[in-house]
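thoughts on these tokens:
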Amino acid sequence: MHFSLPDGHRVAVEVRALLNGGFAGRSQDDVAEHIAELVALGIPAPVKTPCLYPIAPFLAVQSGEVYAQHGRTSGEAEWAMVITRDDVLLTVACDHTDRDLEVHGVAWSKQAAPDMLGHQAWRLADVEDRIDELTLTAWVRNGEWTEIQAGTLAELLPPQYWIDVLHTHNLYAPGTVLLSGTIPMIKGVDQFADAWRVELGDPHTGRTISTEYHVRRLPEPIA
């Protein structure tokens, strides 16, 4: 993967480990409420929270398309932390997930679709002092673009929390990419859309990083 930084530098990263945070809200009371909603939909509750799901590294992509086998897949607005040889980068991400498979296991559903990352990034050290002020917004396209998620990074566990977790489990190494988990979706908006756009914003500088992709349905199996 390649990331462009604000100072013009371009960083190449070979992804060696991909990890997805789950149930990673800063308020674990809100997380418990969300888990209860998922259980009511038949999705298994985690044994403990927050969770960290190892995902196949090749599922971290910078692409404009996701291929899906059916119409019940959707994204999740997230930030992603990228460990390089010399630095820690922060970028935007969208964790595309198979919602039908999710009822059989969250880890399975995440393994069935890619993690979409932005082409730009910021050095974590440059924004860490205002991390909670950064914004995370997502839109879906069902004919027209509609906002489906909006919040700040204050709603999620901070990068430093996950850096400590990586060190504890000997996972802090160049090529590790970690996604943050997501913020709530706006009720009443259809998440099963034909396109997703996610934006990470820094109100202090006015800079934004975005990723956008189309969801392409695969043809029915040939038999």
In short: The mean pLDDT is 93. The CA atoms of residues 101 and 109 lie 5 Å apart. The domain at 2-217 is CATH 3.90.850.10 (Fumarylacetoacetate hydrolase; domain 2). The chain has one domain: 2-217.
